[in-house]
Amino acid sequence: MKLIFEKSVSGRKSFSLPKLDVKESQIDIPEHLVRNEAPNLPELYEVDIVRHYNQLASLNHSVDRGFYPLGSCTMKYNPFLNEEVAALNGFKYLHPYQEERTVQGALELMYELQEFLKEITGMDHVTLQPAAGAHGELTGMLVIKKYLQENNLGHKNEVIIPDSAHGTNPASAVMAGFEVIKVNSNNEGRVDLDHLKSLVNENTAAIMLTNPNTLGLFEKDILKISDLMHKNNALLYYDGANLNAIMGKVRPGDNGFDVVHLNLHKTFSTPHGMGGPGSGPIAVKSFLKEYLPKPVVGMKESGEYYFDYDIPKSIGKVRSFYGNFSVLVKAYTYILSMGKEGLKKASELATLNANYLKEKLSKFLDVAYPDVCKHEFVIKGTSLKDYGVSTLDFAKRLLDYGMHPPTVYFPLIVDEAMMIEPTETESKETLDEVAAIYEKILEEARKDSDKLKKAPLTLPIKRLDEVKANKELNVKFD
Ligand SMILES: *Cc1c(COP(=O)(O)O)cnc(C)c1O
């Protein structure tokens, strides 16, 4: 495809204005600020601009184009209704400096969303400020840090994190000033309880857990883990980025967790990826309320909503204004339109779809932990090496079949990992087709492994040097 600059023809315009029928106004721009020459902008007809950007967009994969089973990322389909509501003028044209009495509807939405998230997580208080999951983690860990300092527990500086955890967990703990201690997984893929016991001591500040964990397995020992931590004056942090398997079924608050973050842009149906706006609210038990970032949205006895800045021990602000408001609108719309039963059903279908696909793929690929899974499962790609190919080759070949590869090489504890999360919004026909394509690619690996090694063969961009693309990114046109 040509660049838009290559399509440019000097003098071509995408607008036509009526002839000037008033005197041209002269603005006095200081000499040193005036350009010497016109900026180099592409000049095209409107239709060519529209086509250019639509063609570019069509080169990207998206949930609207095809299957997108990116494990841990919950690329579910996002109903258009959410977008329509977020685009209502009353929401779209709000200004964050407007007086509270003029934004009562927006405050009510935020207040109710806080209430919904409390109910869904089984927690007592919520802040909607954090802008993403990792940002929620950092906020939560700062809350824990402040709590420990305020309660003469400032010596507690160790945070225990399983070896299967998402990389943001250790990063957040370190940024909040803690030291990370790794706990091993056992051969079932769950936290090794004996190893955990040996690690807990008077310096243990908290454990950060993902449940179901990144292998898609529920930590059955969660109540034992919670007892162990609390007996040692340590807290439990819940990475709730993917609530997709347990929403409406199990509440982290009831399992003993003290702090929870949620990814509204995963579980609660906001389109994400490419660094778009996200939202990572955190929910805490009541003893941590006084440390939350301010403001939170409150309701007076009169029924009036307001921003509550009266949080004297607050860790401060973690984001400008009140969070990514449009993402909050989408999550609110999603929760209301699904209803209590709908959310439960989504969890059930996400789990059913994952297990269905896991069983189909297990006929010809190795499932790392064959136990019944929750919303995702992990394939161990070691056997691909027998054909001289890798998980990366397999993933690249999937692109040729019009589907996005799963998350690869994560979690780190599985060799040549492929982490598959089909989500609840895929039909049985799609899952059957996916299994058939995986089998076909495996057949290709056996007979013609070059096809995989050179893949993708059909896309405009072929195999990239991914390290180079990362380290020496060059998006400049000369
Ligand atoms: C996605 C994810 C995160 C981080 O969320 P971001 O919004 O990408 O910062 C944290 N933990 C888990 C398990 C995740 O899947």
Automatic annotation (TrEMBL):
Coiled-coil spans are: 428-455
Q: How does it assemble?
A: The glycine cleavage system is composed of four proteins: P, T, L and H. In this organism, the P 'protein' is a heterodimer of two subunits.
Domain of life (superkingdom): Bacteria
**Signal peptide interval:** none
**Recorded catalytic activity of this chain's protein:** N(6)-[(R)-lipoyl]-L-lysyl-[glycine-cleavage complex H protein] + glycine + H(+) = N(6)-[(R)-S(8)-aminomethyldihydrolipoyl]-L-lysyl-[glycine-cleavage complex H protein] + CO2
Source gene?
gcvPB
Enzyme Commission code: 1.4.4.2
What is this protein's function? The glycine cleavage system catalyzes the degradation of glycine. The P protein binds the alpha-amino group of glycine through its pyridoxal phosphate cofactor; CO(2) is released and the remaining methylamine moiety is then transferred to the lipoamide cofactor of the H protein.
- Give every Glycine dehydrogenase C-terminal domain span: 346-447
- Please report the name of this protein according to its UniProt entry: Probable glycine dehydrogenase (decarboxylating) subunit 2
Its Gene Ontology molecular function terms? Answer: glycine binding; glycine dehydrogenase (decarboxylating) activity; pyridoxal phosphate binding
Q: Which cofactor does it need?
A: pyridoxal 5'-phosphate
GO CC, alphabetical:
cytosol; glycine cleavage complex
Q: Which residues cross the membrane?
A: none
GO BP term, example: glycine decarboxylation via glycine cleavage system
In the record, which positions carry N6-(pyridoxal phosphate)lysine?
Answer: 266
InterPro entries cross-referenced by the UniProt entry:
GcvPB, GDC-P_C, GDC-P_N, GDC_P, PyrdxlP-dep_Trfase, PyrdxlP-dep_Trfase_major, PyrdxlP-dep_Trfase_small
